[in-house]
Task: inverse folding
């Protein structure tokens, strides 16, 4: 680089740094919205949870090392194994890959941050606060103790009367805000925030995997969130969703939980597969074989995983045909998994592999995951599953899949991206020793546990009798478990020492081709000095001088003339530039809102409903403050985006990022609503003590209010939208829409008059359906009022009507769920009145 | 966004059809079915008809995806959508085959 060019890059760096930097000192920790900072903090938090879960695992192995152990009593042991599973699944596995994604994705995609930076911060703080609450509960001895899948009736108030189960139900639901937030972020970012020219076929493979995983999170988590909420309603208000004597069915929980729980396995595996598909070709000094086939395998694996949930319920007495459906899909899912494995082997074959440390971990993954996959096929066979169900064979299988299929590739990924994360190159060499300790310890523990499972040892027992034949196996497994723990401890130590002490490294030490290696290391807050233009999947291979061009501002938005945080959004398929997205400044609001949200969720643990209500008002107020700070009061028209291209800002397009975010949030919301309708149909069809003693009669008033409200709400917002676009007065339309929403609420409220919330599962379900409709109508109403104030304050014009489109989307959703929900509530009453 | 739909719709229709047929099996085996005056033989026929309808839908989507008017302008997306369409068809045939081959309501 010549001196002049270096000066250009340095000047640009200084200008961008002053715009994008975090607030100084401790304040910056709480106000940051930057993906690099949040990603780093998230990684540290999730690693802390891995340590906590690991310590609990060691306690379990200490307890089971000898028969009749007096190390822990059953009450403590129940909390320990429940929290081990809960921490590893909810507080480590998912948050860790989310953390890595938040950190890496903007760099890989060639953009300056994720689509909704404040949402990243909010999700992170929800996670940290929620995790801290769970750990405090553990230390205080009131941690959940019903197993990580919390089956009722064990978790119902009759058998779990304390607050332990409430902490799980409310705490995990709260923490899942973080997963949903990250998923919305990732989907919108991958679809819209990319380098110019990065069409769908040029996406980094990791981005494809994360897009698939994010959609899975949006569609898999809602059933479990619904299950948690209705179980909590049962515990708090005696609404009998899971009580057979009143028309409930504990199997409903199992359906809702595993509708989440099985896709969850693939939600955990696919990011790891994304890491393997990214790292392995670099280690093999080649490109990924069969890119399109890998994408097809990832998508089909994701969707097939939603057809597997009942294979966790093979022992519940489901008819043979039902078992056969899920056994068939359980075998089918091996096909896309196998496609990926063979493509990775083919990639190794095609290239010239080098055995660096990340590659060592990937080889460990291959061996372990294939073994876990094969035992997975075994338990997919119903007769075998009946023998192995709830035994240590299953414990061993799931650890082979989760540790082998997730933890090993993630460690490979951390070592691979260590220069990007820390700016340093690995100097200390504890990693190789740690790897072998982990391998020996892991297989020594879990290979043996298959055996003890086949000998009949049940999972979750706190002790066993001497003379059972399990003593030696358990002792060896426990010794190996401690070797495994030492190995993982060394991995963390090795990474920490290299991250903080090792020498500075050069950019792109692996000679990788993807864009995250095209920035200075560690990446600056703005990630890219200018938005690059790419025309292949491996832009750094095609244009080795691309990093220099980016640093000199030769891409898009290379001159920060408007002195604000800007990046470029592109079209979904072709990656053509579409608009300039203006990002928010640092803000304390996400942190404060996470604190208030945590109070809203956790106060019901102590039956402090008033506090939860006040916090709900607080969350609403903070959300309005959050939303108010965006937008513009004047039309800016087309702005110079660099390279001779002029584009509007996101304020002046019909479907701004907020609309896209809402769209995918509503996808999750609609799955929750669909799960509710599924539960209603399930209870009606399968549960004992149905039909209910009294069926709701719709009458005339309710349907009339529903039809009128739907028409007014939907029509009013369209009138307002049209008025805004023609610079007319939108007040009439907005007010009509508000009136419609209030009418819809009244229609839903008629359900309460004809039912009693705790009389029967039917009544309880109708109350939840009506509550869901009222909640969404209220939400849409608040948004409509917000729109009214925004119009008054001059935030909307014939060019700036995106806010109205967002509100319209939420109103349309409220109308749709009101129609479906009230239709479902009233249908049995209507049918009962039809003469036979 | 149309390309995302081309890629995702066939396999999403598979999971919808799979869930619907599983739900139908639940209804056939419930008291509601016999209360409506229907026999298990009619239940089997309904399940097989649903399976056939799901397969026909998948075949129709594959055909539609191949039409010049409906296919993606991006060849890579078109190929991916076709692969996933075939995957959805195979999944429909295989995963719902028990409606014709296993016992009902046992």
Result:
């Amino acid at each position: 680089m010549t001196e002049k060019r270096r000066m250009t890059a340095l000047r640009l760096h200084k200008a961008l740094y002053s715009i994008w930097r975090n607030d100084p000192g401790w304040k910056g920790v709480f106000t940051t919205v930057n993906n690099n900072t949040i990603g780093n903090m998230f990684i540290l938090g999730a690693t802390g949870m891995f340590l906590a879960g690991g310590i609990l695992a060691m306690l379990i192995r200490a307890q089971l090392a000898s028969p009749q152990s007096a190390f822990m009593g059953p009450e403590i042991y129940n909390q320990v194994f429940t929290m081990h599973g809960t921490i590893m699944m909810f507080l480590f596995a998912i948050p860790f890959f989310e953390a890595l994604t938040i950190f890496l994705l903007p760099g890989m995609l060639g953009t300056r941050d994720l689509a909704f930076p404040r949402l990243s911060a909010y999700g992170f703080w929800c996670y940290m606060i929620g995790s801290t609450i769970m750990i405090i509960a553990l230390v205080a001895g009131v941690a959940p103790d019903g197993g990580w899948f919390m089956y009722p009736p064990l978790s119902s108030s009759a058998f779990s009367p304390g607050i332990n189960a409430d902490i799980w139900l409310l705490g995990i639901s709260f923490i899942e805000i973080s997963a949903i937030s990250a998923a919305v972020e990732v989907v919108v970012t991958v679809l819209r925030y990319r380098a110019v020219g990065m069409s769908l076929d040029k996406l980094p493979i990791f981005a494809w995997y994360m897009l698939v995983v994010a959609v899975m999170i949006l569609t898999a988590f809602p059933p479990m969130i619904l299950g948690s909420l209705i179980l909590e309603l049962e515990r708090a208000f005696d609404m009998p969703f899971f009580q057979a004597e009143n028309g409930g069915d504990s199997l409903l929980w199992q359906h809702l939980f595993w509708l989440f729980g099985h896709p969850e396995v693939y939600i955990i595996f696919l990011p790891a597969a994304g890491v393997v598909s990214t790292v392995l070709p670099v280690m093999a000094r080649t490109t990924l074989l069969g890119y399109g086939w890998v994408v097809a395998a990832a998508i089909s694996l994701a969707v097939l995983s939603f057809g597997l949930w009942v294979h966790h319920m093979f022992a519940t007495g489901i008819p043979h045909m039902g078992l056969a459906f899920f056994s068939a899909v359980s075998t089918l899912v091996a096909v896309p998994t196998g496609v990926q494995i063979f493509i990775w082997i083919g990639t190794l074959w095609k290239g010239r592999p080098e055995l660096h440390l990340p590659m060592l971990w990937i080889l460990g993954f291959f061996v372990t995951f294939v073994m876990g996959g094969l035992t997975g096929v075994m338990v997919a066979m119903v007769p075998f599953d009946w023998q192995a169900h709830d035994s240590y064979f299953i414990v061993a299988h799931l650890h082979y899949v989760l540790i082998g299929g997730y933890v090993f590739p993630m460690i490979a990924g951390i070592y691979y991206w260590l220069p990007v994360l820390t700016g340093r190159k690995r100097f200390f060499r504890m990693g190789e020793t740690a790897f072998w300790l982990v391998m020996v310890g892991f297989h020594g523990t879990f290979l043996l546990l298959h055996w003890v499972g086949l000998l009949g040892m049940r999972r979750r027992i706190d002790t066993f009798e001497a003379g059972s034949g399990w003593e030696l196996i358990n002792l060896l497994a426990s010794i190996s478990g401690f070797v495994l723990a030492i190995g993982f401890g060394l991995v963390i130590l090795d990474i920490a020492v290299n991250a903080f002490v090792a020498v500075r490294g050069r950019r792109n030490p692996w000679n990788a081709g993807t864009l995250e290696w095209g920035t200075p290391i560690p990446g600056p807050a703005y990630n890219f000095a200018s938005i690059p233009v790419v025309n292949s999947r491996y832009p750094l291979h095609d244009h080795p001088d691309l990093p220099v061009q980016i640093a000199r501002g030769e891409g898009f938005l290379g001159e920060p003339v408007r002195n604000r945080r800007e990046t470029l959004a592109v079209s979904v398929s072709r990656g053509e530039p579409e608009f300039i997205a203006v990002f928010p400044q640092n803000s304390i609001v996400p942190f404060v809102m996470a604190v208030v949200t945590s109070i809203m969720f956790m106060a019901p643990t102590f039956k402090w409903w008033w506090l939860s209500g006040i916090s709900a008002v607080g969350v609403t107020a903070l959300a309005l403050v959050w939303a108010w700070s965006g937008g513009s009061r004047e039309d800016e028209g087309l702005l110079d985006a660099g390279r001779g291209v002029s584009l509007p800002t996101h304020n002046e397009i019909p479907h701004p990022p907020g609309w896209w975010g809402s769209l995918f949030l509503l996808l999750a919301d609609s799955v929750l609503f669909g799960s509710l309708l599924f539960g209603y149909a399930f209870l009606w069809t399968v549960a004992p003590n149905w039909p209910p003693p009294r069926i709701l009669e719709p009458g005339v008033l309710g349907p009339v209010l529903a039809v009128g409200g739907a028409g007014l709400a939907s029509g009013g917002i369209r009138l307002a939208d049209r008025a805004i676009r023609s610079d007319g007065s939108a007040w009439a339309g907005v007010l009509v829409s508000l009136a419609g929403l209030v009418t819809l609420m009244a229609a839903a409220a008629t359900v309460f008059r004809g039912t009693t919330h705790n009389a029967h599962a039917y009544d309880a379900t109708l109350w939840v359906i009506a509550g869901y409709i009222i909640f969404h109508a209220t939400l849409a109403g608040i948004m409509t009022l917000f729109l009214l104030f925004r119009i008054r304050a001059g935030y909307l014009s014939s060019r700036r009507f995106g806010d109205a489109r967002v509100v319209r989307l939420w109103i349309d959703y409220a109308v749709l769920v009101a129609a479906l929900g009230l239709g479902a509530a009233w249908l049995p009453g209507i049918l009962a009145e039809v003469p036979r | 966004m149309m390309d995302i739909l081309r890629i995702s719709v066939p396999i999403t229709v598979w999971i919808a059809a799979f869930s619907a047929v599983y739900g139908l099996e639940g209804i056939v085996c419930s008291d509601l079915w016999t209360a409506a005056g229907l026999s298990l033989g009619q239940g089997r026929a309904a399940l097989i008809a649903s399976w056939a309808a799901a397969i026909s839908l998948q075949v129709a989507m594959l055909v539609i995806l191949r039409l010049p008017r409906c296919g993606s302008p991006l060849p890579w997306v078109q190929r991916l959508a076709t692969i996933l369409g075939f995957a959805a068809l195979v999944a429909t045939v295989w995963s719902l085959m028990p409606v014709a081959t296993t016992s009902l309501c046992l």
Notes: Chain B has a mean pLDDT of 93. Residues 6-101 of chain B form one domain. The CA atoms of residues 40 and 75 of chain B lie 48 Å apart.
